[in-house]
Amino acid sequence: MGPLYRRAHRKVEQDAPIEGLSVGVRAVLVLLREHGPMTVPQLGRAQALSRQFVQRMINDAAARDLVESMPNPAHKRSSLIRLTEEGRAAITAVLDRERAVLRQAGGDLTEADVTACIRVLTHLLHFLDHVDVD
């Protein structure tokens, strides 16, 4: 897993500048695209990152008009962050380009292979999210 993660991460870092997005801003935009408006603390928890780091990524994205704040009816002091049209277009372009590249990686993998891989990785993520390491 380590070598695959490092190579994939490096590829994302290399390709992100094509759209002018850092890896951190890209991650925030992906979450907002998948889940809709979220607070900075929610974005941090979803990525296991500090609120401060996520806030810097939000600030970077907002400076480029990729995200905007909106009132949060559930919490007066914690605004919701949502994608702008520009943000949605930017992250869609990044994901479309990545998917086009990844489609070439399939080789002779079957749908059953991919389904089994997703099941195993999902199980590992769930396990790691809930295991106590003391």
Descriptive key words:
134 residues, 6% strand, DNA binding, two-stranded antiparallel sheet, Arc Repressor Mutant, subunit A, 68% helix, MarR/SlyA-like, 6 helices, mainly alpha, WH_DNA-bd_sf
Can you offer a commentary on this structure?
With 134 residues, the chain is mainly alpha-helical. Helices cover 68% and strands 6% of the residues. Residues 1-126 form the HTH marR-type domain. This is DNA-binding MarR family transcriptional regulator.
- What is the fourth-level CATH superfamily? Winged helix-like DNA-binding domain superfamily/Winged helix DNA-binding domain
Helix content: 55-70%
**DSSP strand (E) fraction?**
5-15%
- Tell me about the largest β-sheet: 2 strands, antiparallel
User: Which outline best applies?
Assistant: globular
Average pLDDT for all residues: 86
Task: State Rg.
Answer: 17 Å
- Secondary structure category: mainly alpha
N- and C-termini, Cα separation: 23 Å
Number of self-contained structural domains: 1
- In the sheet with the most strands, the strands line up as 1-2
CATH C-level class is: Mainly Alpha
Unreliable stretches, pLDDT < 50, 5 or more residues?
none
- Give the SSE string: HHHHEEHH
Number of strands: 2
Query: From the coordinates shown, what is the CATH architecture?
Result: Orthogonal Bundle
CATH topology: Arc Repressor Mutant, subunit A
